[in-house]
Amino acid sequence: MFTMTSTILRNLLKEPATRRYPASVRPSFEAARGEIRNDIHVCTFCGVCAVKCPSQCITVDRKAADWSYDPSACVQCGVCAEVCTSGSLQQARDYRKPVRKKELVVLKGATTPPKHSDPPVTG
Amino acid sequence: MTRTIIPFGPQHPVLPEPIHLMLTLDDEVITEAVPAFGFVHRGLEKLVEIRDFHQMIYVVERICGICSMLHAMCYCQGIEEMMGIETPPRARFLRVIWSELHRMHSHLLWLGLFADSFGFESLFMQFWKIREKILDIDEATTGNRIIVSVNVIGGVRKDLTLEQTRGILSELKSVETELKRLETTILNDYTVQNRTVGKGVLTAKQAYELGLVGPTLRASGVMQDARMLKYAAFDDIAFTPVVETDGDCYARCKVRFREVFQSIDLIRQAIGKLPNGEIAVKVKGRPDGEVTSRVEQPRGEVFYYIRANGTKHLERLRVRTPTFANVPALLTMLPGAGLSDVPVIVLSIDPCISCTER
Amino acid sequence: MQGEIMDIGLDNLLGETARIKVEGYRFVTISCVEINEIRMELLYHFDRNFQLKHLRLSISRDCRAPSISPVYFAAFLVENEIQDLFGIRFHGLTVDYDRTLYLEKDVKTAPFCKFAVVEKSPVCEEKTP
Ligand code: SF4
Ligand code: SF4
Predict the structure, then answer these.
(1) Residue B246 near residue B200, CB atoms below 8 Å
(2) E-assigned strands of chain B?
């Protein structure tokens, strides 16, 4: 009986263990592996990221200067950002927002402006 | 008395994953149980032909979410042995820390699911609340909650700072107090004892002959834990396996519950002895030859057989996961049990079907 | 590879396994490796006090191998898996899924083989002892 009372009291006094999600959002941890972003103006189209990616979701076309990435096949391992030779590829802290349909992210280098709606973020 | 055949699964409320059991019943008592698989077979072993041996780390991690870190660790240790790479001491200690964190969150997950299997839902909630703390540690230190991806061939990818290790220690302290509070419930409660004591008994001889591994085997009184192989930093850390002798579902529960405390202790030791220095060495060359590698996962010993031929693709990667070894136990334990005990007995081996089928 | 490796043939497989069991080994698993278009290799792994022991059996693809599941019951699962994925058939299985453990009934190919072979009934049996 006594244990039960103390449990009840503890539960009444404590804050809930869960958050009311959309209203209160915990900021991502510093180390969190989130979305992959490429600063296409720095990218040299060397293709190292495409070779090293374990889920092979990056394709680099050196001639056409385009870099494309399939976010729905990405496993957020962070290998590509680690091996990037120019430092253009960065892994952000935040996760990608849910989407309605699968889409390739295609970034065009140098001559044409980026097609992707998000502006590329520099680290 | 009529003979009835009842299909159990593949989608069953107590099972997070699809396994199908064909139960033949004589009245309420099971006379025969035949498991059927094949619902989540992905053929990951075959991927060695198109992914190189570095990329395979991320593939083997995805064999099973809950033991991901230990799969990668086992794989990396195998390749390191094959290529004669000496991992730096700090990397080996870090591997112990993360692998024990993994064991803790896996056991807490299981304790919750186990409580749920006999309908004790508030206990399920409590265990999962504690588990969330471990997952937060994982995310803060490695970047992901479950698939931590910290292993690379030759070491680890992430380092722990001094604040992080302090943070882990203080979190572990609160995890320990909260777990202590639940101890009386999970181990002494009338409901729990009534549903688990004497159910699904396996003697030590039976368990050993069936080739069981992990807590399922240790609960029957056989002291067998792959951590006794002293891989990673276990040669510098004091370690005695947790063994129970009753061999029933209650004993398995007790083994896992005590192993959570043991893991806390192991992490404390590892953090206390954490040496400074490099966390990874550069890897040159290609693997060649054949090697076997074993580590202790939360569910038991995992066995890797790796054969390479000097190219960047391995020739064969064979994974024997702990649940694969534990499934035959079901065929022995279920006959003679009552229908209402099936969920408890099935969960007592901690089945991980994605592991089993790969 | 850790542990001692022993080459065996189809005729002394069961005898060796039984001997190993008497010596107190625990069954770990069987690994199947495809060597070339004709040969396959089966590796039987056993463990006692963390000492591994391996039996290496070279077998032709269209041979039936004897099942060790009457000796080690736990072997039935992995033998069924090999039947499914590599197409080697075992005889004397205690529980035979007949290639439906992972696969559908009408699948005739072996998905893990690099050299595609369609299943036909095994042509050679090992000599009856
Ligand atoms: S995070 Fe990993 S999976 Fe995603 S694109 Fe980079 S390398 Fe590929
Ligand atoms: S590795 Fe970096 S620089 Fe090279 S193609 Fe990828 S993003 Fe561009």
Answers:
(1) no
(2) 3-8, 20-26, 29-36, 151-152, 155-156, 288-297, 300-309, 314-320
The structural architecture, per CATH, of the domain B3-357 is Orthogonal Bundle (1.10)
- For chain A, which domains are there? 34-97 (3.30.70.20)
Q: Which residues of B touch C80 (CB under 8 A)?
A: none
The pTM assigned to this predicted structure is 0.85
Point out the residue among B38, B316, B324 whose CB comes nearest to the CB of C77.
B324
Q: How far is the CA of A84 from the centre of ligand 2 (A)?
A: 5
Question: What's the CATH number where C40 sits?
Answer: 3.30.460.80
User: For C53-67, what is each residue's pLDDT tens digit?
Assistant: 888 888 887 778 888
Note the pLDDT tens digit of each residue in B113-148: 888 887 788 888 888 888 888 888 888 888 888 888
Q: Among A57, A83, A89, say which to mutate for ligand 1: greatest number of ligand atoms within 8 Å of CB.
A: A57
Q: Which of C23, C47, C55, C103 to mutate to test the interface with B (most CBs of B within 10 A)?
A: C47
Q: C19-50: per-residue pLDDT in tens?
A: 888 888 888 888 888 887 778 888 888 888 88
Domains in chain C: how many in total? 1
Q: B291 pairs with which residues across the strands?
A: B306
Residue B266 C-beta-side C-alpha neighbours within 13 Å = 29
DSSP string over A58-108:
EEEETTTTEEEE-TTT-----HHHHH-SSS-EEE-SSPPPP-SS---EEEE
Neighbours of C3 (CB within 10 A): 15
Residue C26: which domain range?
4-91
